[in-house]
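Weekly modeling sync, notes
Attendees: AB, CL, MP (scribe)

Item 1: holo prediction request
CL wants a bound-state model with adenosine-5'-triphosphate before deciding which constructs to order. AB pointed out that an apo prediction alone won't tell us much about the pocket. Agreed to run with the ligand included and paste results into these notes for async review.

Input as submitted:
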Amino acid sequence: MKILQVKNLVKSYPQTSDNPLTVIFDTSFDVCQGETVAITGHSGSGKTTLMALLAGLDTPDSGSVMIRGEKLGKMDEDRLARFRAEWIGIIFQQFHLMPHLTAKENIMLPLEILKYKSEDIERRANRVLRQVGLDKRKDHLPSQLSGGESQRVAIARALVVEPSLLLADEPTGNLDTNTGEQVADLLFDLVDSSGMTMIVVTHNIELAARCRRNLKFEHGRLQAASMGN
Ligand SMILES: Nc1ncnc2c1ncn2[C@@H]1O[C@H](COP(=O)(O)OP(=O)(O)OP(=O)(O)O)[C@@H](O)[C@H]1O
């Protein structure tokens, strides 16, 4: 089953002086359920822009993004926010945790947005905290956590709703080599055991090689696909 269908996507940004800067040129690709896909490419090639379009955090000039058979562009803001919370997990390079909430409260947030029952919120949050090895750090604020721990919280927050699609933008980019490897191991363990679909933007060749499919982005265009392991 195709979980993601991207068709003829075009995105440009307005510039103060001359013509708009086109960042994504007529990009199309599909991703099947359970696939792991790495998107690589030079800095500035448009990878983060593409991820924002896939997550429905930004809108394309033309073309469409379809997830689970539903077009993001057809949804109003409320529907899109709910759809995103329910089906898409997002992990950023800079963690993006809420600074005034504890690790556990950050993880509980998506479940609260989706109005889960309090006992389900408690059960799910405790389970993912254990899965990412942070049950002893659950009451810490983000400022009291290391980079690796913060990214584990972000992974737990992305996975707590059991999304169909996990989007990760440079998930190890802000971590030292060892911590990055541990976080990557954790991420792939969790993705493999759940059968989840993951798209990961990365400069890290080892991380890309662990994905089943590699897509190379160059100057806003997708180059020929290559297979990972
Ligand atoms: N909001 C914006 N307004 C104007 N230009 C933008 C905006 N966001 C990104 N750009 C430009 O679009 C291009 C692609 O940026 P993007 O962040 O998608 O690249 P990237 O491949 O993710 O880069 P990196 O690997 O360095 O993170 C760059 O030239 C960038 O300057």
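Recorded for review: The mean pLDDT is 91.
Action items: CL to compare against the apo run; MP to circulate these notes.
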